[in-house]
Specification:
Carbamate kinase; four-stranded antiparallel β-sheet; 26% strand; binds adenosine-5'-diphosphate; binds aspartic acid; binds magnesium ion
Amino acid sequence: MALIVQKFGGTSMGSIERIQHVARRAVATHNAGNQVVVVVSAMAGETNRLLALAGQVTKRPHDREIDVLLATGEQVSIALLALAIEELGCDARSFLGHQVQIRTDGVHGSARIRTIDATPVEETLQRGAIVVVAGFQGVDEEGDITTLGRGGSDLSAVAMAAALKADACEIYSDVDGIYTTDPNVCERARRIDRISGEEMLELASQGAKVLQARSVEFALKYKVAIHCRSSFHDGEGSWVLPEELNVEGAIVTGVAYDRNSAKLTVVDVPDVPGTVAALFQPLADAHINVDVIVQNISFEGRTDVTFTVPRNEADQAVALANAAGAVHGWGKLLCDKQVTKISVVGAGMRSQPGVALRMFAALGKAGINIQLISTSEIKISCVIEDKYTELAVRVLHDAFELEKPPSERGV
Ligand code: ADP
Ligand code: ASP
Ligand code: MG
């Protein structure tokens, strides 16, 4: 008997018919002789709907209350799915985050999982029932509800798989696996059979939302293999293998884009020690994640600093940087929300020169201007104008011949 964790996201839970479909899948896995834990997200669009409701009440929502609100989406899903499973004649029991004892730190909105006490789940499985767990939520030391960041049900599933020492962790969504880029943007995208955890972490961190980045980080740490599959049809899917390196031997494995960035430029910054730290200190204090950073060469003792932050935190970042500027004497702040970060990722670029040049040349040939560049060992990112996102994805996909298996690529 195997223990299988299956996670179904918002689209898979998007209607009563779809919930009934998920129930049939879970029952079929159970009837094949397995113990089954199903982790689910809120129904499609529900988390955004709840956020919009809060937005009608206040412009400065309290994080704790937002988590109380958002967690209701998953509560509806687990109850409906457990009822649908029972209707098929199989025992089911739903659990909220605090009942599974998914204990987190107290950072509302992006809490980190500390421990899971899986005993109640194990006891329920032993009684022969299917366990249905609310994704995306946990409980902190104060007993308050926390949420794990957008897309966080992926993390709930991986963490449950690790805690239960599950034989499989299956993540079901509206795509039948991990592709060389978002298949909804580039129809030439090719499904990847097996990808290293390291490359998947980089792709997810750069915006490939097929898996939440933190879930991949967790899978790497606890050596959980993730199997991404389609909710709607059977197929091989894709495997994320935490212990492998560059499974396919590709130079570039995929292209990702992140439309959730804003670009801030601080002009006329005094070029003296400590100024950049003074600029970023209030942002760090407010838990704002600064991403790409570029500082210009100094001219007559003054310089410019440009950086990106999550788009929904841009206004707060501008206010904080302006307030600090009044003390430290830098000039005005420019904010551009119409930007996208586009990245090529591949473990093979460690040993292959010329990847950056190929990327820049392909964007240049398509008339796409590069605003900022940042690199790490296995990725190159460019910030570009938002309206060119789809074009840039396709152009880069073609430039690296990602539609072909790596062995047939000329690059
Ligand atoms: P769920 O709601 O089930 O968690 P998501 O919408 O979060 O599903 O993730 C699936 C989506 O991820 C797909 O519809 C696809 O548009 C997008 N996506 C982005 N990059 C990739 C990629 N490299 N491979 C597959 N899907 C991708
Ligand atoms: N419902 C949450 C969200 O929309 C969590 C998830 O879908 O994984 O982000
Ligand atoms: Mg998701």
